[in-house]
């Protein structure tokens, strides 16, 4: 019996890893296991710290009653999958780099994250106009990134609390770069990555400027002129100081 339970738990963990947070009912249906049995496994996995329950995010008007709870892998639960998957992914990307160079790695990374665009469009259709960042967070959450949106000065912050490819992205930052490019394209404005789990930060954080801030973003050439002017100013002051002291 123990072996059967362990096998079912492995299947539960793998399904959550590949499909993102799931309800007990969805897991029972997809794994062809009774809801009562799934709940027993989930209770045991929560006690072991492998999965955690959280309130399901709902789009549109909320009906009566409490929303269904969804179960997501914790960092400890995800770590059991990292080694095998990461070794394979890193080996494949190294081969791509050796045979096609850095450009080939970048092209692969962009193709990998392009599927997010399709998922985003499907999710965005159910959100009100102007809620693009929230729709993007929802699409990312469905992919297992546990994303949320926080207000910030001059805009919003898109936070990804989990990253299934963090260990690979640590060696191949092209994955993070390609993802940021997709964010900019989907939201129609320049976004800035502030932190990544791959670089040791607790959360992947992306600044999304508000419409007004995006419209008034300084021209890069103007910024360059200001930087040059400031640098020249500093040099002139340093020269004057040197002449005075001599």
Note the main attributes of this structure:
246 residues; alpha+beta; Arc Repressor Mutant, subunit A; 2 domains; 10 helices; globular
- Side by side, the strands of the main sheet go 4-5-7-6
Q: Can you summarize the main beta sheet?
A: 4 strands, antiparallel
SS element count, helices:
10
| Beta-strand content estimate | 5-15%
Q: Give Rg in angstroms.
A: 23 Å
Q: Domains counted in the coordinates: how many? A: 2
**Which term fits the overall shape?**
globular
Give the proportion of residues in helices.
55-70%
Order of helices and strands: HEHHEEHHHEEHHEEHH
Summarize the structure.
The chain has helices at residues 2-19, 24-31, 35-47, 75-113, 115-124, 132-142, 166-169, 174-187, 211-215, 220-245, and strands spanning 22-23, 51-55, 69-73, 147-152, 155-160, 192-195, 204-209. Residues 1-5 and 218-246 have low confidence and may be disordered. The protein is built from ten helices and seven strands.
Q: How would you sum up this structure, described in words?
A:
Helix 1 crosses helix 3, helix 2 (24-31) packs across helix 3 and helix 5 (115-124) packs across helix 6 (132-142). It is globular, with a radius of gyration of 23 Å. The N and C termini lie far apart (88 Å). The model is unreliable at 1-5 and 218-246 (pLDDT under 50). It has two domains: 2-73, Winged helix-like DNA-binding domain superfamily/Winged helix DNA-binding domain (Arc Repressor Mutant, subunit A, Orthogonal Bundle), CATH 1.10.10.10; 79-215, no CATH class. It has ten helices and seven strands. A four-stranded antiparallel β-sheet has the order 4-5-7-6. It is α+β, with helices and mostly antiparallel strands and 246 residues long. It has helices spanning 2-19, 24-31, 35-47, 75-113, 115-124, 132-142, 166-169, 174-187, 211-215, 220-245; strands at residues 22-23, 51-55, 69-73, 147-152, 155-160, 192-195, 204-209.
């Amino acid at each position: 019996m123990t072996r059967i339970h362990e096998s079912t738990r492995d299947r539960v963990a793998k399904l959550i890893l590949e499909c993102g947070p799931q309800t007990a009912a969805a897991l029972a249906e997809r794994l062809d296991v009774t809801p009562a049995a799934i709940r027993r496994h989930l209770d045991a996995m929560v006690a072991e710290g492998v999965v955690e329950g959280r309130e399901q995010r709902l789009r549109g008007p909320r009906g009566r009653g409490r929303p269904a709870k969804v179960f997501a892998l914790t960092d400890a639960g995800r770590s059991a999958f990292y080694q095998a998957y990461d070794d394979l992914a890193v080996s494949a990307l190294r081969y791509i780099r050796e045979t096609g160079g850095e450009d080939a790695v970048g092209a692969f990374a962009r193709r990998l994250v392009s599927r997010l665009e399709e998922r985003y469009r499907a999710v965005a259709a159910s959100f009100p106009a102007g809620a693009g960042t929230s729709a993007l967070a929802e699409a990312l959450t469905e992919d297992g990134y546990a994303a949320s949106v926080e207000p910030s000065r001059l805009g919003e912050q898109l936070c990804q609390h989990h990253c299934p490819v963090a260990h690979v992205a640590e060696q191949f930052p092209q994955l993070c770069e390609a993802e940021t490019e997709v964010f900019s394209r989907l939201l129609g404005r320049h976004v800035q990555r502030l932190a990544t789990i791959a670089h040791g930060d607790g959360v992947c954080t992306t600044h999304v400027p508000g419409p007004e801030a995006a419209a008034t973003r300084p021209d890069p050439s103007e910024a360059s002129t200001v930087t040059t002017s400031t640098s020249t100013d500093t040099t002139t002051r340093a020269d004057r100081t040197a002449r005075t002291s001599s």
